[in-house]
Amino acid sequence: MSMAALIPGLKVRAEGTYNDQKQLVATSVSFKGNDLQDAEKIEAGLHETKVQVQQNEEELEKQKRCAESAKRSFAAQQAKLTEHDAKIAANRAAVEAAIARFGQLDDYYIFDEVALYFANGKTKVDPKYTPQLLALADKAKPINGYMIEVKGFASTVGARN
Question: Do 36 and 56 meet the contact criterion of CB atoms below 8 Å apart?
């Protein structure tokens, strides 16, 4: 018989020698006919099991790929969620700062005043007040949140506290 007759489960008798890698190199292999028939029956009985095992392995590999895809998708969603949380926190801080500013709109310190006088019925500023107004504006520039207010007969420079 040929080497094709050697199947798993077949009882064999082998004679030979060991090579340098300590592997048996057979010079003769023999088996009984009954043992070959028994091995073929076992092999035939295991065929359905082998097919099922192969299908299970393919399904398992498919599920692993799906799980990896879901894991990557979840990680991407987590990153977006973290980004959105950071934006929400920044917006919340901006809203709270705006609320605080609105609450302080009427709280100002007066840093300087300039008195301007207008002739009766006139609305144009007399040129002699231009240097005083320019000096007032220069004082206001370095003040954060300054406001120049004109009321009655005086102009003032103020800033929020």
Answer: no
Summarised one tens digit per residue, pLDDT across range 57-78 is: 999 999 999 999 999 999 999 9
- Residue 159's nearest CA partner among 141, 134, 135 is 141
Q: Residues 25, 16: contact at Cβ < 8 Å?
A: yes
d(CA 18, CA 71): 51
- The pTM score is 0.37
- CA angle (103 as vertex; 100, 108 as ends), nearest 5: 105
Q: Looking at beta carbons, which pairs linking 5-10 to residues 24 or more positions away fall under 8 Å?
A: 5/31, 5/36, 7/39, 7/40, 7/43, 8/39, 8/42, 8/43, 9/38, 9/39, 9/42, 9/43, 10/35, 10/36, 10/39
pLDDT in tens, 18-62: 999 999 898 888 888 788 888 888 888 888 888 999 999 999 999
In angstroms, rounded to a whole number, what is the distance separating the alpha carbons of residues 152 and 18? 117
Cβ neighbours of residue 32 closer than 8 Å, sequence gap 6 or more:
11
